[in-house]
Structures are given as structure tokens and as C-alpha cells.
Amino acid sequence: METNHTPRAIAVQILTQILLQQGSLSTQLNRYQDQVASEHQALLKEYCFGVCRQFPKLNSLALSLLSHPFEEKDTDLYAVLLLGLYQLIFMKTPDHAAINESVEACRALNKAWATKLVNAILRRYQREGNQLLDNLTSMPSVEFNHPKWLVKRYKKHWPDQFQQIVAANNQHPPMCLRVNLNRVSRETYLSELGKLGIKAVIGIHSRSALYLESAVSVNQLPGFDDGLCSIQDESAQLAAEILNPNVTENLLDACAAPGGKTGHLLETLAQSSAKNSKDESIAEGKLTAIELERWRLDKIESNLARLGYSAELICADASDINTWWNGEYFNKVLLDAPCSATGVIRRNPDIKINRKPADLEALVGIQQTILHKVWQTLKPGGYLLYATCSLMPEENEQQIAAFLASQSDALEVDLATLNPHLLKLFSDDQVDPLGKKVSHGYQIFPRTEYQDGFYYCLLMKDA
Ligand SMILES: C[S@@+](CC[C@H](N)C(=O)[O-])C[C@H]1O[C@@H](n2cnc3c(N)ncnc32)[C@H](O)[C@@H]1O
To answer: Is 336 in the pocket of ligand 1 (CB under 6 A)?
Structure first.
């Protein structure tokens, strides 16, 4: 594969696909990023993530500068224009360089006819930009830098948390590590980081979380290749703490890729087996992980290989249980369902471009089907943890309300009753709460500098 493309050319290609609703940013980056030399990949990501993160603002501005929008066949030119504006407003690129590179990008696309137009628009922004932006700030999409429909929903569902949510969604996410407590204590790992000059603080909710003061490449993290730590948000780390599997249990991770929680469940299993027999390897084979997409299943495989654990990995539709289930019941199931990801927009900022209200209905249907089907594989007396990284009640508490109403053998378990640590996290009388107990389950809100938005509800099958 050619790796000598410029980050701008590949960013334009990726952004064009996203604007045309052809897949997500993570899928497109996975597909194209190797076409850029490794030393330029950070810049490629900055371009792509930056334009998506600032899209509502950039889009309103670009539309106000154009006398009429580009035709669909010229979406690549629109991507060039958005990237040029992003550089002018948010990057330290000198103006003349941003404008010249944008003009050259039109030529590289064999659309030299657009050079004058792009040049004129970017120069007009240079002259009048601040005034133009001021004129647009009365639009909710520009004021909050989110699509209007999402602003409305966040305000409606979470009026008290609205400002916190949009502020967190608009920022670069913090880099959070999960320390593999089988191999090293969090304090020792923190001091190893300190010796390398990597500043970090301890997460207060998960026992394995560390937040880095600034992001570093994983190659700089001590023992990363040997599985001493993983990159995982603190809210996501609570899944394994809640399910707390032990070595005697048969586990299912129903929607598993890229395997963050699979790895953590295996670490927890290994800890339990080490306590019982000093043999970490007993954890192997106790966990089945299902994932619909093959390329994402490969990510689980490489994640587990790095951690030194294995599990039964199956590429299948979790709801089509006849294709993958051997009839042996699971004691514990994690269903980290596909969702709107409206609690993790800072990590998936293309949601600001692509997510539409109609997607929610479809996702609710998919979640419902998987939940009902996977429930059949759970042993009576067993537990299913339903999780999403969504802030939308229809995917969370309402989904569970409908499930409980239709499934007579399902009982909700209060997360705060599981152990003293979780009591501290999930009871409602916290001074500085993670989130909020809702009609069913617990809603965590994203927070600048700290955790992502998440939802958990633990269900037990009546024995
Ligand atoms: C929220 S992500 C899971 C994240 C994962 N648990 C982790 O911690 O790394 C949801 C995953 O479910 C997969 N998925 C979607 N529909 C599915 C289905 N019907 N069966 C199995 N997996 C599915 C998606 O491809 C995606 O990888």
C-alpha cells in the first residue's frame, strides 16, 4: 500500500466519505490511515477529529460564506473548505499556508475550476470571520456546537446536566488507562509513569483507572505491549467491577469489539483464579465474545493477545443465537449494546455529522432484539449487565422498563447493593456524583477531564 499521501489528501478523502454518510470516522480511519506515513498520522487524526468536532460551527459558517451549497458530486471540495476553515480558526497554521494548501487540494482533486472560489471564501473569512461567527451564535447549533436536534434532546432529558454534557462533548477526551491489577498495582504503575516524566492522577471511581495529564503514544507507556495497562475510559471500567466474574463462571460478552471490556473481564477472572489457585491461565476459555463485524473481531483478538489472555471469539449476530450458542447457559452476560454513542461524542465526533433522530428508533429496535435473545442464554439465577454509552432514555431506562414489563423472569438489581465500593458510586447521596439513578439503572454523564457518559442496568434472571 502507498504510504506517501499527504495527511490533507487522506483527511479530505475520509471527511468526504463521512459527509456522504459512508461509514463512521473510526471505520474510515481504519481503512485509510496507513496510506499516510506514520509520522503524519497524528496530523491526519487532528484534521479528521477536529473538523468533525467543530462541524456544526464550521458547517454554518461555510454555508453562510457560499452563495449556494456544493453539489453532492463536489462533496470533496466541501471537505477541503471545511478543513481550510478549521485550520484558520482552530489550528496554528499560518493563514497563507492554510489557504494555499486548500487551493492546491482543489487541483489535486482535478477540480482546478474551484481554486478561485475556495481561495475567495477563505480570504473572506480572514477579513470578516469574527463578525460572521458572531452573527451565527444565536443559532443553537453554533452556540453549543452540536446539531440542533441533539441540543433539544439533551436539554429536554437532562436540563441540569446540559452544560456539563455539551462542554465535555466539545473537548478532546482525556486519556484514561486501566491498569492490569493482576500484574501491577495502580500505585506502582503510577510511580513507573512518574519515572518517565508522564504525569497522571488516580481515577476516583474505578479501582484501576489513571488519567494522564496529557495524551502520549502507547509506545511510551511502560509495559503496554506486555499488557500492563490498556486504554479505557473510567466509566467503561465499571462494567467488570459490576459483573465481578469469578473463575467458576461461564461468561458471555455479547457485543464485544474492540474488546476493551472483554480484556477487563478476563483480567478480573484471572485475578479471581489467581486468588483461588495462583494459576492465571485458568481464566482462559471461560469467556465467549460475540461480535458482528469481522474487522472489529480482529481488534479483540489483537487486544487479548497483547494482554496474554484468550477467549472464544465468534463473528456472529448476537441476536441470532441459533448460529453461535451451544446451549450451555452463561452465569453472567455483558450486553454492551450498539447505541447512539451520545455519551461519548468527544471520542466519536462524527456523530455530530451523521447521527440522525431516526437512527435512535432503529437502534432501540436492535438493542431490544439482542437483549431478548441473549436473555435466553442466561442461566436462572444469573446476571445480565445491560450497558450503553448513550444519554438517551429510550435506549436506556425506557428500554429496560419495556424489557421488565415483557419478561416476567427478569428482576432489576440495584447497583448500589452489590458491594461497599459500588454503594459509594451508585447511591444518590454523593456530594460529587458520577451521574444519576434513573427509573431503571444508573445514568453516568460525561465530564470534562474525567469520565465518559454511560448507562448501566443490572438484571437478574429469577431462579
Ligand atoms: C458499544 S460497542 C462494544 C464495545 C466493547 N464492549 C468494548 O468495551 O470494547 C458495540 C459493538 O457491538 C457490535 N454489534 C452491533 N450489532 C451487533 C450484533 N447484532 N451482534 C453482535 N455484535 C454487534 C458493534 O459492531 C460494536 O463493535
So the answer is: yes
